[in-house]
Amino acid sequence: MNGLSWFSIIRLGLVQTALGAVVVLTTSTINRVMIVELALPAVLPGVLVAWHYALQVLRPRWGHGSDAGGTRTRWIIGGMAVLALGGFLAAVATALSASNVVAGVLLAIFAFTLIGIGVGAAGTSLLVLLAEAVAPARRAAAATVVWIMMIAGFIVTTALAGKFLDPFSVQRLVVVAGCVTALAFVLAVVAVLGIERGAKKFQTEKTRDATPFMQALSEVWRDADARRFALFIFISMLAYSAQDLILEPFAGFVFAFTPGQSTALTSVQNSGVLSGMILVGVAATVFAKSGKMVLRNWIVIGCLASALSLSALVGAAAVGPAWPLEPTVFALGFSNGVYAVAAIGSMFSFVAGAASREGVRMGLFGASQAIAFGAGGFVGTALTDVIKAVTQSNALSYGTVFGLEAALFILAAVMALRLGVKTTTENPLVLSAQHDLSS
Fold first, then answer.
1. What are 3's strand-pairing partners?
2. Residue 148 and residue 136: Cα distance in Å, rounded?
């Protein structure tokens, strides 16, 4: 057997679509309703989203739970149930805030706690199942498929929710959220059922892991390969995410873009991300068959290209409206897409190549990624505010942050050269990550 079929990989991608649908409903639609329709302070949804990211530090614990239980499917379904309930309660909390702000905020905190736990539990076990069951030569393509399907969940949910929310009322928000979360849960259950049982046909037999969690985490942390990869994920994802919340304001302040134009600019960036993901997914799979390409090379290319694109944005900040901003932002998105898929495919290799503790390893890497995403948005916005307050210059504040992101990507590229993650065509029973670190 050569691992999961493409049909099964796409089915698991549908779980990621369901995850994305619930998450985007809370981080985008509900976020906007709190700020615009209910006139609540913007810091409120910001803190709630940050709290949901902070809870991702528990991912190693959820991964250990699926290791100990001997099954990933139960954790995926259970996590999706918690996530769906959290997403629905977030809408209820928003509606409640219209009449009782204190009660609404308290319920929202509980709802986003469920969201953070649900995403961590379901997402970690889903990625471990993919890492264990996908043949080495297909990992980059599998990463592309599941991430594109997650983005598809973003797009479909926001489009349909936007349509059915008009004319807006908080009651309608609760109904739409209930429909989205219920459909997402059902989709995830139908998509995942039976896949793990079929995957065990070509996996080595594993016994349940009865090791206490802290001991298991300590063992993984003592692995130098795992530590280095977790640190690489944190540094690179910090660079990747720090521009998320500042790109549109940068376009508005420095290039005088309207809200509509800056939103279109984000679309340009996302188009670049998808293009980069597809390129690596296809190319890495093709080259893997002849042994000519390793995922590590794609990581380095993506990091260095991202650094170059961010350096171009530094130039854009200095030059102003005469600079070709749209092509630069597309290049940044493309470079980010190349990096992201290669990094995620390599994450699969590091987990599948481990002798044990796959769930704890994936949880550690997932926690690094989530913490970096939460910190990236905060650091990016905070630095621009501080530098702007000192220099009174929009161009200098945004340009400085873009420059620091470029430096982080260069550091990440250097770190990637030591990872030694290869895409091979070896027997999938072995699934070796080839951790031959070069010193």
1. 134
2. 19
